[in-house]
Specification:
Elements lengths: L14 H20 L1 H22 L9 H11 L14 E10 L17 E9 L14 E7 L7 E6 L9 H11 L10 H9 L2 H12 L11 E2 L4 E4 L5 E10 L8 H6 L4 H12 L2 E9 L18 E13 L20 E3 L3 H18 L12 E3 L2
Antiparallel strand pairs: 1-2, 1-9, 2-3, 3-4, 5-7, 6-7, 6-10, 7-8, 8-9, 9-11
Length: 383
């Protein structure tokens, strides 16, 4: 399978280069001493920038929701930090393959992703739980994460779920959902009273729960479909901008398992079945874009009417899978805001929060020991 590019620039400089830097610094310092007003102005700008980053990080307002508090909540709901793993969607496996766009895709977006040539893809299938050793039978939300990398052009990353939307449309609402679902330390289960109070004041969470209850759970990763959750802007060659959501719709025939059948399987049955399916041959999904109409809500907790126009943008083909390891998908941040020109973020408030939380999760796990996963030392198929 292709490896992630973990190269970094050379930090060793030639002595003459370092001397030039010192001389330049001395000249700059002398210039500022001769122009104190300019120096003060530069200082104000620097303090403002530092203050902005501190505010965004939550350092100036410890009670404000910050990426740190959000990741702390994920750790708590998982029974503590599982070092070396993602703080959500912790149990996963890496995938590799390709993407081929359709001709009509180029009429909706100028992104190089849609020029028509086949391009390499790496990604990850996972379960949503923060526990990397959770039994597959207990998990009801699955995810697909992808990195599409055109040769010599900006890449596109996405993290999509097999759910229809989220429990809430703002970071605060999502955080409150995590807090309400945190297991009680004595019973090891969420407190029904806390959940009832939460649902009384969060109608989007009630609607989400109803959708999840009505949705049959696919029997595996390969025959499941995955949705973008958030809205994005596709910019067409003529400059027209459209609010879209997309999904990866499985070409494998849908099937489901009863709860009793899932409980009778091994704790890693989803991953065992997926590896076996890859070994039998390639797996495919269609990238389907759904176009919003005026008035459609750009809120992750609300779905659009089923009659919205859909456009087939291309086909994803997965040819290989392997356990997470250094250099593959394990060390990739599938940040949904890493977008190529032609695809832009919308004003959906969840988007920026997801990006910041993914970065905080990566910061924590990157400095930790990486133990073997529940599906270690496994592979199938070819890159």
């Amino acid at each position: 399978m292709p490896r992630a590019d973990n190269s970094r620039s050379n930090l060793d400089a030639h002595p003459t280069q370092l001397g030039g830097v010192r001389a330049q610094s001395q000249n700059t310092w002398g210039l500022l001493l001769r122009n104190p007003i300019q120096a003060i102005a530069i200082g104000i700008v620097l303090v403002s920038v530092i203050g902005l980053f501190a505010y965004v990080g939550g350092y100036l307002s410890p009670h404000r929701l910050s990426p740190k508090r959000m990741v702390d909540a994920f750790e708590e709901i998982g029974g503590g930090a599982h070092q070396g793993f993602r703080r959500a969607h912790a149990k996963g496996i890496c995938i590799a393959g390709s993407f081929q766009a359709t001709a009509v895709a180029r009429s909706l977006s100028t992104a190089t992703i849609f020029v028509g040539s086949s391009l390499p893809v790496i990604g990850r299938f996972a379960e949503s739980a923060p526990d990397p050793y959770a039994s597959d039978s207990t998990q009801s939300v699955r995810s697909m994460a992808l990195l599409l990398r055109p040769r010599g052009a900006p890449e596109w990353r996405m993290a999509i779920n097999d759910t229809s939307g989220l429990q809430g449309s703002t970071p605060q609402e999502f955080y409150e959902n995590l807090r309400a679902s945190t297991p009680d330390r004595q019973t090891g289960k969420p407190d029904p009273k806390k959940i009832a109070v939460y649902l009384e004041t969060h109608p989007e969470a009630v609607a989400f729960a109803a959708r999840m209850k009505a949705k049959p759970l696919a029997s595996g990763f390969a025959n499941d479909s995955y949705n973008s959750i958030d809205g994005f802007i596709f910019v067409a060659p003529d400059g027209r901008r459209r609010l879209v959501r997309w999904s990866m719709q499985a070409e494998d025939p849908f099937a489901t398992l009863t709860l009793e059948e899932r409980k009778s399987r091994s704790s890693n049955y989803l991953f065992d079945d997926f590896l076996a399916r890859v070994a039998r041959g390639v797996i495919k999904w269609r990238l389907i874009a759904t176009l919003a109409m005026p008035g459609d809500p750009n809120r992750a907790g609300q779905v659009w009417p089923s009659d919205r126009q859909q456009v087939d943008m291309g086909e994803l083909t997965i040819t290989g899978a392997e356990s997470e390891a250094p250099g593959n998908c394990r060390d990739v941040i599938f940040d949904p805001l890493i977008l190529p020109p032609g695809i832009e973020p919308s004003d959906d408030p969840i988007l920026s929060a997801r990006s910041a939380v993914y970065s905080e999760s990566f910061r924590r796990r990157s400095g930790e020991r990486h133990p073997l996963s529940a599906v270690a030392n496994r592979s199938a198929g070819s890159p």
